[in-house]
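ping. complex inputs:
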Amino acid sequence: MTALARDTIASAFRAAVDVAAADLGWPAEARAVAIEVEHPADPGHGDYASAVALRLAKPLRRPPLAIAEAIRDRFPASETVASVEVAKPGFVNVRLADAWVARQVDTIAAAGEGYGRSTRLEGQRIQVEYISANPTGPMHVANARGGPIGDVLSNVLAFMGARVTREYYVNDTGSQVDQLGVSVALRYRELFGEKVEIPADAYPAEYVIDIATRIRELEGDRYVGMALEDQAKAFAPKALDIIVNEWHKGTARKLGIDYDVWYRESELVGSEYFRATIDELRARGALEERDGAVWLRSRELGEDIDSVVIRSNGVPTYFGVDLVYHRQCLVERGFDRKIDVWGANTYGHSLRMRAAMKAFGLLDRWEVVIYQYVRFLHEGEILGMSKRRGQFILLDDVIDRVGRDVARWFFLQSSPDRMLDFDLELAVTQSSENPAYYVQYAHARIASIFGTAAERGLSEDGADVALLTAPAEADLVKALLRFPEVLDDVLARRASHLLAAYALDLAGRFHSYYRDHRVVGDDPALSRARLRLVRAVQVTLRQVLGLLGISAPDHM
RNA sequence: GGCCCCGUAGCUCAGUGGAUAGAGCAGCAGCCUUCGAAGCUGUUGGUCGCGAGUUCGAGUCUCGCCGGGGUCGCCA
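pong. complex structure:
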């Protein structure tokens, strides 16, 4: 549990504004104003700054500089802050006290695996659902992106004290599964010498042959001679088992993802719970019958069009099952919150789901993080990806080529809002220069420094951090202090890429420091202090890499 | 056509109203007899797609346009 320096400064601003308002008779707007504290781009402007005086200028009808001075004069004295200055046109700039900053080195080093952790989400049960790729084929690069994004979001939520369930929703019903069964049956026949033609709506890809081969290995020729329809019915669940239990689970593990629950959609279809939930929606007046089908009255709930929940043939749609699943998670299964990490191709579905959650009165406990597509480039050309046509890059192959750490970094480095281009050739050739290695190298270097120290009989025991007086040392500590602030932003914005950006920044600062400041040197006291500082950097790098799900090696 | 995302250095991208717009890669010039050169230092490179507006202040917010991607199914 670590107090954020940013919060400490913001509270001080709040206090100063309130006192000034009381002293000078400022109107109510002064107390209502939001205090925002930021890191100035220019270090000459201090460590933290607020533009609150500029914001108050208009409502108070006073010059911003005068307001800033009034705040400065009432800024509470503390051991944290060294100076408070006013800068035109009305900024209030705060500089942290060097001694306080140096002391944080001890705090961070001692916190270890507790550094940055918080209990603010304690007691909350949150389900994060991610990847949930169609179980009709192997996982490919396009639907991989949600994996690291959802996983890191889960890590951060758990780091903040929430009880997190990582869930994978398996769409194991519907016409796609029937098609898979037929496709496998045809390939099975082919394996026994029959000449078959693959219809346009079946899956022609190579992996279907792999599945048929697998079934032949396991069960031999016992399905030969059966009608195609019966073969398809028998093979569909077997194919799903192979794809989900052997392939998808294997790929998830390779990516470093450990799911708590693999939920099967088929558990819901045809269940009493499904019917009861539909009845509840009907009782709420959210459904209507039209053309023999059952519709959710989405338009009444603010969407553009209504959506079919149960088809005229009595079979629920994908949406119909998914909305029941969502309700089950938030009501029967007791999650306080459900976060879906979905690809851009589910945008339409997310709008329908929003209407459904509104109808249930659960909208405020559900959210969706939508990430944009990953486009795949091969030799500079954009490739279309289609599971049906068998055109896609297997995620397993990518991980095998570049490694888990680089693969995760690639998906985590940029905002989910931005479309990614994945060029395998480029990814492989550049992997030795990958930013992930840049960060890991900083960690390995630190391990090496401790190795050298041990050889020379030096340790951090008895370190006096007051000896850390170099400006570069204070800057490094301030970078460490930003870690909890970054977590705060990641949580507020569901933006895991900020963590990757922070890791890069911190590693860069450390590499710079390393060049100019010898840690294990001639002065034992100074060496001990610097070892403690390096320990604090190590602690922070481990926390960040751990949350990103990227290894923190001692050797590379 | 409606809705969602994006357009920032040659390339890949940070930057959710603040002060002089940043990093990595690529390019150029340097730095290893001392803790790991997968590193560091310096340097080249920008009409932040275009145009208006709001604001003390706009890469960031609003509107329009241009360009790219997604979505709008009794598919999943």
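The first helix of chain A runs from residue 5 to 24.
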